[in-house]
Amino acid sequence: MAVGKKAKMSFRPVAVADPLDEPLFKDGWWFVPEAEDKSIIPLEAKRGVNALQMAGIPVVQTIVGHETSQLLTAPILVKPMRDRKVAEQSVMAAKIIGTTVLTVTKVGVAIAGFLGFLLVGALMFDPSYIAVCRDEHGNYFWIEVATWFD
Q1: Between the CA of residue 147 and those of 39, 126, 144, what are the distances in Å?
Q2: Which burial class, exposed, middle or buried, applies to 39 when counting CB atoms under 10 A from its CB (0-12, 13-18, 19+)?
Q3: Fewer CB atoms near the end CB (10 Å): N or C, the chain?
């Protein structure tokens, strides 16, 4: 934390944990290795990592943390009723309606999927730039060197 203070930056301890091999979701945050993240990292955040390295603290990985809102619960599915006897005209009408509904549903699912993709992206905010460092004993620790609004 002294390195951050000397560089006139606000560093914060995040965790005592190993570097990431893959993205991790924990306590409402997605932690993603920088190499796999598509966020644009501000130069000020990179300056924080450089300050650690210049102070002789080995930085073995950088991670981008995304705070996410809580996701909605899964929808409740209703099971279809079976063994019903229906008149022949009703079956034909149901097939026509069913085909129309199926087509509209496919289009609706495609649109909902696209909007859902945009919504999940919009729900991610407050990125955090984290340096994974190693102490003289070989232990890893995470330090947040910057946050910003995306």
Answers
A1: 12, 6, 8
A2: middle
A3: N
